[in-house]
Amino acid sequence: MMSNLARCVALLGAVLALPVAASYPAPVIKKVVVVGGTHGNEYTGVWVIKAMKHRDLGSTYPSLDISTLLANPQAHLENKRFVDTDLNREFSESKLIGEDGMPNTIESMRAKELNEMLGKSADNSFHTDLIIDLHSTTANMGITVIIPEGDAIMGQAAAYIMQACDAKILMHSIPKRKERPNLSSAAKHGFTIEVGPVPQGVLRHDVVEKTEQAVAALLDFLERRNAGENVVEQLKQTYKTVPCYRSAPAKQDSQLCGKIKWPSDPDNPNFPAVMIHKSLQDRDFHVIRKGDPLFVTLDGSVIPYDGSHGDKVYLIFVNEGGYYYQSSGTGIGVAVKAKYDIDSGMLVDDECHES
Predict the structure, then answer these.
(1) Which of 124, 198, 213, 218 has the least CB density, counted as fewest CB within 10 Å?
(2) Helices assigned H by DSSP within the chain
(3) What's the DSSP call for residue 120?
(4) Alpha carbon distance 341, 5 (integer Å)
């Protein structure tokens, strides 16, 4: 017969072999700030945060402390992307500290104010667990969510939204937090939702609804996670690794990671000296290969893609109105397909070396 000790050992072995519920690091994500109007003429996010005030979020998401914020009220009042400089380029550590010789702008001062309100406190903890920054785009991006590499929870949330809303995921190209210029990087976790196409300074009902669906899916993920549901194991039934896009690294010294710069008019840095070729319009997330038409000049000549970011890349933010501004960084976005690990949020595979 089996001794009592043997029975205990056998029982313990059986218990250890059982699947266990996911254990999440404490504290759970609680304080969430939903931001609209980082760019003042992107009306979708402003509408969504105003509409949220008319809903009983506390009963729907009892574990979350949700608030809303209009990021750039002056630019919004003036129906401008920004007043002086792009607010979503002001949150790197060097910008927040203040670069020598750089004048203060409305946006640089607002960034310091928001960082103090939402970012790290004196004891190095964060005032805000999560910033959800809502943007719209003139490009045909559909629902696109932007996350930083290595944030496992945001990677899992993005996969949840992709499954619920047929969204695409773009992995942030700047791995170090202190170098990230975007507003959402001020909090412990940052998540950006881009939906388009919609003109600047215009509300479209369908784009508002898609944005609200993405926000609701994200909040639903957080609520279920906080309640102890093993949402990640459910996601793993669909994704072992999560498909995404990441910024295409530049192969030429004259170019930036993730963007093909275009030349600007000598009389106006915000007016391009070339036009995006008609074959590319509205074809976000489609392939362009070296030699394909890219730009058209004033005399009608066609400039082909020269392989500046690889022989084969995917165009994103095609003819994005915000990228006509020098302060925002002029040009057209380029990405490569990639995958990330759902447990770590780290990239595991991409097409960077494909021809």
Answers:
(1) 124
(2) 4-17, 43-52, 57-60, 73-77, 93-97, 106-118, 152-165, 205-226, 231-236
(3) B
(4) 41
Residues in the chain, how many? Answer: 355
DSSP 300: S
Residue 15: CB atoms within 10 A of its CB come to 9
Q: Kindly report whether the global pTM for this prediction surpasses the value 0.70.
A: yes
**Pick from 201, 222, 194, 224: which is nearest to 318 by CA?**
194
Q: Tell me the per-residue pLDDT of 98-151, one tens digit each, with 9 for 90 and over.
A: 766 667 899 999 999 999 999 987 777 899 999 999 999 999 999 999 999 999
Beta carbons within 10 angstroms of residue 93's beta carbon: 14
Cβ–Cβ < 8 Å for 137, 195? yes
pLDDT per position as a tens digit, 229-283: 999 999 999 998 999 999 999 998 888 899 999 999 999 999 999 999 999 999 9
Name the burial class of residue 303, with classes exposed (0-12), middle (13-18) and buried (19+) by CB atoms within 10 angstroms of its CB.
Answer: middle
pLDDT band at 29 (very low <50, low <70, confident <90, very high): very high
- What's the rounded Cα separation, in Å, for the pair 124 and 277? 48
Cβ atoms within 10 A of the Cβ of 119, count?
A: 18
Residues 6 or more apart whose Cβ sits within 8 Å of residue 112: 96
CA distance 136 to 208: 9
Q: Which residue is associated with the tokens 């509409």?
A: 51
The stretch 325-349 carries a mean pLDDT of 93
Q: Which two tokens stand for residue 238?
A: 């669909």
Best CA proximity match to 293, nearest among 284, 282, 281: 281
Three-state secondary structure string covering 7-48 = HHHHHHHHHHHCCCCCCCCCCCCCEEEEEECCCCCCHHHHHH
Please report, in angstroms and rounded to a whole number, the separation of the first and last CA atoms in the chain.
67
> 344 and 236 in contact (C-beta within 8 Å)?
no
